[in-house]
């Protein structure tokens, strides 16, 4: 081999070894992501959540995630998107006890609302998933929801010119499932509800934003259960499981996961179905009460159609014989609260003050198609 | 030129003497230091709590038995005490132990070597911190309310200790529930736990064992069938919490070093 041939061989070797890794696309100049400061997403009043360090917010990533969220091509027959069952006007819940999926099959539980997810430590009613990038694969593949297979989805995204462009813009890659999950994670993390009158009232020194009835309801919500000689209590102790500005207990041990005495014995195993531990049977994640007035029906199985029914349950219908009922609910000798009609109305009024109307129509979270 | 070389060498020497680890909080010049593993271990009747899912009722006082479902402890001023009375703060002095969960072992680096005679901490916070804006704390800080779930919301302030569970009067009876939540400034409680430890070498372990049944069985025993809940508010709750905390002074001890 003469010196010229050797030199050419070396040059070819150097150039071929410098090609992009599999999945990358040639540099088209489209990959110029715009970083989004988390402080522009999350309000100071809520504090900064613990965010995934390997998935920084970008305008392009959030936009891609939003497109994927609303795109029915993620389902096997291109009929259902995530947004079909998580509808913005209902705080990304759905007014059904169980959602309709592929071929009209029903989901096993009601669709949970989606907002302020960045503050959560686990997802789904049974807390079985710890990150949103994992979460997105469950409904996509569930046979009674979107019934998609991952190889099919990958090929479908790769053939779609729009996604070739947007994956390139967001990640400098051709469409792939890993980046799909990261983009959807960015979008889901970015959904924030913070502007209800309850949030303006919180932490309690802005009384004028609430009506007199709502204010009385606030004290019932916050009040501890203490029965007087007539068996009446001024407080209903809602705040242990639904406290704070997020109206949600995020520590599972402190009431973030609980049985609220729906049944004498667990019917749906809930968290126990995942852990197979006795004390978890029939326990579920306690949801946020923000936007609660628009997320009917209530509970994991949608058994209560109205907030009035929910309040009746906590006032008069708790099954204290449930073996896993949360101690904070049952530590008062298993006595029903027996709230008066006025107390129930005030509590209802306060719960309705937790609706963030601007969130329900915020264009940043709306269907982009 | 020699002058500049000398200055540069001096600068390098000085910057190389910065504290090599700030976790321990001792500060100052580099000196021999060690790592401390501090564990808070919940017990009933001198036996470690069984793993979650294997809970069984254990005897307490008054013929009652109990199991603990939730046990959180919020601390400040967490520090080791030297022979001369000086203290070495552990981290920034704040800690949240989820004793029934998985967050109950903490590692502190940069602990100055030497002899220590005690571990001290305050169950609770100073008033300014307790009533300050809880959202100022970073997302992974022990005082972040979205992490610990121990802030009372608009009532202001934190729960310093949450101790919940179930009890039975007789083995065949259905269980009752108990819930003791320590809060408000009047119930801030300081603990000093004596120990004798000579910190040398790379790593030491200090285990704080806490007997949950002793919260109910001290000088004034608490019969859960009579009173099983206190949230530190209201006359009855306050009296019950005072007994609970007086008893708690006998519940802590350091066993392993």
Quick synopsis:
Chain A is mainly alpha-helical. Chain A contains 16 helices and 2 strands. In chain A, α2 (59-70) packs antiparallel against α7 (161-171) and α13 crosses α15 (341-352).
Describe the structure.
The complex is a heterodimer of chains A (about 375) and B (about 260). Chain A is mostly helical. Chain A has helices at about 5-15, 60-70, 80-85, 130-135, 135-140, 150-160, 160-170, 175-190, 195-200, 210-220, 240, 270-275, 305-315, 325-330, 340-350, 355-360; strands at about 255-260, 285. In chain A, helix 2 (about 60-70) runs antiparallel to helix 7 (about 160-170), helix 2 (about 60-70) packs across helix 8 and helix 13 packs across helix 15. Chain A is globular and about 75 Å long. Mean pLDDT of chain A is about 90; it is low at about 10-20. Helices cover about 15% and strands about 40% of the residues of chain B. Chain B has four helices and 14 strands. In chain B, strands 3, 4, 5, 6, 8, 9, 10, 11 and 13 form a nine-stranded mixed sheet that branches. In chain B, strands 1, 2, 7, 12 and 14 form a five-stranded mixed sheet that branches. The interface between A and B is large, with 48 and 45 residues.
